[in-house]
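2024-03-11 09:14:02 INFO worker-7 job=invfold-0412 stage=load source=structure_tokens
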């Protein structure tokens, strides 16, 4: 049986569990090791005023619609004829973050900043997802 326990001196971002007679810690370090998500300083892209990237996927496929729902994103991903394979990857990344990492309901509006982040796949891969979640 697994049970969360309190451990004296535990850090602010640690969870401790009792499994049998053992005490097991789950902290940011273990989260990073399990998920392989990066932990570093958080990018300002989340807090900056959103401006669509000229000729980016948000403009090309969604007309810069700021009320785009996760459901519409998913439907477009399944139906659209992509102009470029990279566009398919970028849209898949937005869908992955919204649906899997964030676990957003299909009625939720897509986070605009993700459209800007995926235009630079290298920056997307370097993003500090571990801190964000």
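2024-03-11 09:14:09 INFO worker-7 stage=emit residues=133
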């Amino acid at each position: 049986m697994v049970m969360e326990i309190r451990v004296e001196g535990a850090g602010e971002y640690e969870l401790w569990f009792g499994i049998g007679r053992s005490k097991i810690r789950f902290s940011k370090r273990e989260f990073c090791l399990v998920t392989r998500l990066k932990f570093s300083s958080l990018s300002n892209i989340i807090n900056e005023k959103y401006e669509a990237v000229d000729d980016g996927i948000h403009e090309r496929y969604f007309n810069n619609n700021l009320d785009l729902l996760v459901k519409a994103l998913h439907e477009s991903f399944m139906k659209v004829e992509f102009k470029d394979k990279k566009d398919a990857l970028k849209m898949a990344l937005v869908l992955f973050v919204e649906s899997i990492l964030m676990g957003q309901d299909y009625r939720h509006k897509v986070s605009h900043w993700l459209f800007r982040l995926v235009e630079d796949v290298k920056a997307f891969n370097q993003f500090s997802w571990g801190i964000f979640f």
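2024-03-11 09:14:09 INFO worker-7 stage=report msg="The first strand starts at residue 2 and ends at 5."
2024-03-11 09:14:10 INFO worker-7 job finished
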